[in-house]
Design a protein that fits this description.
Length: 377
C-alpha cells in the first residue's frame, strides 16, 4: 500500500526515536476486530469486513471497509481455511477471481470467528495485517517497547540502541552494553572486517547485549534474545537457545472491536518489564559472556580446507539462497580467517547487508549452528 492510502508498515536500521514515531503512527490507525466468517468476504483480492459500528466510551468505532491483505495475512488465511499457501499466492497474482472464490467458499464453510488485525487507510481502504484465531492475545509492539525500556531503566544499566527494524512480521530492537565487555583473542585473532579492514587481533573486544523482538501478527512470541557484538566489525551473534519467550495465547474473544481492559494490559506489561530486568541480569553478566565466548572459541579454530564446499554445505543445511551462499564465500575470503570461526564471521557480516530484516535476524541467529557445521561437529 502506498503512503497516501495507509501508514508505513516497515523500517530497517532505524534509530529508537524513528521507531517510536512509526509505532505511534501505526497505533493511531489500528483496528482489531473479531468477526464471524459470514462477516468477512473477499472482493478483488481484498477483504471486506461488514461488522456493525460499535458504541463505546471512545465513541462510535467503524470497522467496515476494504482491507488489502499483506503476505502475512494471506498466510493466515491459507492456514485457517485450509488452502495451500503457494496456490493462494498464485491465484492472487494470476487469477484474482479464483482467489476471491476460494476464500469466500471456505469462509462460508468455516462457521467460526476470526481476529483480523488491520490498519485504517484513506477512503475506507486499509491493510489487513493478520488473520488469526480469536484466542490470540494481543501484545502490541509499542507497548512491548515501552515496557522493555522501562525494565532497562529500572535495572540501572547503561545501554545503547544498536538499531531497530520493523517488518510486516516482527519488530527487532538491538540493545548493546559496551560497559560489559570481554576479550576473545582466540575467536578473532585471524579475522579482518570486510567493511573496514580492521583486524581482530588488534581489537578482540566483544560487547554484551540482547535483542527485543515481538510480533503483532502471530509470527512469534515476545522474546528477549542474548546477543554478542564484535567491536571490530559490529557483527552480531544472537544465541537463540537462551531466549526468554512470552507466548501470545489467551481466552476466546467476543465479536467486535478488541479492547483489552486496563488491568489486563497492566499485567501483561508488568510481566514484560520484569522479564526484561531478569534478562539484563542474565545476559549482561560478564561471566555469561565469557562462558559463551569460551564455547565458541573451542570450535572456532578448526581449519577449513575447502571453503567453497564447507560454505555450500552450511548453505544447504540452513536453506540459504545461491546468492546468499555467494556473498558468504566473498565475505569469508575478505575476512581472511580460514577457520570455522571465519565461516561464522562471514555469515554474521552478510546478515548486516541484507535488506530483509527478518532474514538478517534469522541469519544472525544461526551463528552458533554455523560454527558447529563448519567445524564438522
Amino acid at each position: 500500500m502506498s503512503s497516501a492510502s495507509a501508514p508505513t508498515l516497515t523500517t530497517r536500521n532505524a534509530n529508537l526515536e524513528d521507531l517510536v514515531d512509526l509505532l505511534r503512527h501505526q497505533q493511531a490507525h489500528k483496528v482489531d476486530v473479531v468477526a464471524h466468517s459470514h462477516q468477512i468476504r473477499a472482493e478483488g483480492t481484498r477483504l471486506r469486513i461488514s461488522t456493525a459500528p460499535l458504541l463505546s466510551e471512545r465513541g462510535v468505532t467503524t470497522t467496515a471497509g476494504l482491507y488489502m491483505p499483506t503476505g502475512v495475512c494471506d498466510q493466515g488465511l491459507a492456514s485457517k481455511l485450509g488452502i495451500p499457501l503457494p496456490y493462494l499466492r498464485r491465484l492472487r497474482e494470476h487469477k484474482p477471481d479464483l482467489y476471491d472464490a476460494n476464500i469466500n467458499g471456505w469462509l462460508a464453510e468455516a462457521d467460526r470467528r476470526f481476529l483480523v488485525r488491520g490498519l485504517r487507510g484513506n477512503g475506507g481502504h486499509g491493510v489487513a495485517r493478520a488473520f488469526l484465531s480469536d484466542s490470540y492475545r494481543i501484545i502490541d509492539n509499542f507497548d512491548v517497547l515501552m515496557a522493555a525500556l522501562d525494565g532497562v531503566r529500572q535495572s540501572g544499566v547503561q545501554v545503547q540502541i544498536d538499531g531497530c527494524d520493523l517488518t510486516e512480521r516482527r519488530m527487532y530492537v538491538r540493545v548493546v552494553c559496551e560497559q560489559v565487555r570481554a576479550l576473545a583473542p582466540d575467536l578473532l585473532r585471524d579475522y579482518r572486517s570486510p567493511f573496514t579492514g580492521e583486524r581482530g587481533t588488534d581489537n578482540p573486544v566483544v560487547f554484551a547485549g540482547f535483542v527485543i523482538t515481538n510480533s503483532e501478527v502471530g509470527e512469534g512470541a515476545f522474546t528477549i534474545v542474548p546477543r554478542l557484538l564484535v567491536q571490530v566489525c559490529r557483527n552480531g551473534m544472537t544465541i537463540n537457545a537462551d531466549a526468554a519467550r512470552h507466548v501470545h495465547l489467551g481466552g476466546r474473544m467476543d465479536e467486535g472491536v478488541v479492547r483489552w481492559s486496563a488491568d489486563t494490559q497492566d499485567k501483561n506489561l508488568a510481566l514484560i518489564t520484569a522479564q526484561t530486568r531478569d534478562a539484563i541480569t542474565t545476559f549482561l553478566d560478564l561471566d555469561y559472556v565469557r562462558a559463551k565466548l569460551d564455547q565458541m572459541a573451542r570450535l572456532a579454530g578448526a581449519r577449513v580446507t575447502d571453503p567453497a564446499a564447507t560454505i555450500e554445505q552450511v548453505a544447504k543445511k540452513l536453506s540459504y539462497s545461491e546468492e546468499q551462499q555467494r556473498q558468504i564465500l566473498s565475505h569469508f575470503i575478505q575476512g581472511g580467517d580460514t577457520s570455522a570461526g571465519g565461516v561464522m564471521h562471514a555469515v554474521t557480516s552478510v546478515a548486516r547487508t541484507l535488506p530483509d530484516a527478518d532474514a538478517a535476524h534469522e541469519m544472525e541467529g544461526h551463528a552458533v549452528r554455523v560454527l558447529h557445521l563448519a567445524a564438522g561437529v
